[in-house]
Amino acid sequence: MAGIQGYFVRLRGTRPGWPENMTAREEKIMGEHFHYLKKLTDERKVLMAGPCFSKPPFGLIVLHVTSEAEAREIMSKEPSVVNGVHTYDMALLVVSLMAVNPPKS
């Protein structure tokens, strides 16, 4: 598939009780996680990201990249994954509709 592709990434905590009882180490890593994704958002490689408070909770990232290899490269450097706070699964996502200037929350 040529051009830009979307990928839905789901981050899952690696231990019971995540994220209600984060350790100081995990809080530091999650700060790094936020700044990493913010940089990628500024580069327009992340369309959106945030926590989903379902049971069990998970993190959501929508990547907007040129290939699955690029998506996997991004996730191989993602601080919460590198440091074992999260694992992830990923699926190709066809972005059929997207707001260009979504309202500010």
Describe this structure in words.
The chain has 105 residues and is of the alpha+beta class. It has one domain: Alpha-Beta Plaits (2-Layer Sandwich), CATH 3.30.70.1060. Helices cover 30% and strands 30% of the residues. It contains three helices and four strands, in the order E-H-E-E-H-H-E. It has a four-stranded antiparallel beta sheet with strand order 2-3-1-4. Strand 2 and strand 3 form a beta hairpin. It is globular and about 40 Å long.
What is this structure's SSE topology?
Layout: E1 5-13, H1 24-42, E2 46-52, E3 58-65, H2 68-76, H3 79-82, E4 86-93
Give a short overview.
With 105 residues, this protein is α+β, with helices and mostly antiparallel strands. It is 30% helix and 30% strand.
Which terms would index this structure?
105 residues; alpha+beta; Alpha-Beta Plaits; four-stranded antiparallel beta sheet; 4 strands; 30% strand; globular
CATH homology-level superfamily? Dimeric alpha+beta barrel
Q: In which order are the strands of the major sheet placed?
A: 2-3-1-4
Low-confidence stretches: none
Cα(first) to Cα(last) distance is 34 Å
Summed over residues and divided by their number, the pLDDT gives a mean of 93
Gyration radius, rounded: 14 Å
Number of strands: 4
Q: Please, how many domains?
A: 1
Give the overall shape, derived from the CA principal axes: globular
Q: Please state roughly what percent of the residues sit in beta strands, choosing from under 5%, 5-15%, 15-25%, 25-35%, 35-45% or over 45%.
A: 25-35%
Question: Which structural category do the helix and sheet elements fall into?
Answer: alpha+beta
CATH T-level fold name = Alpha-Beta Plaits
CATH first level? Alpha Beta
Helix tally equals 3
CATH architecture: 2-Layer Sandwich
- Describe the largest sheet: 4 strands, antiparallel
Elements, N to C (H/E): EHEEHHE
Q: Residue share in helices?
A: 25-40%
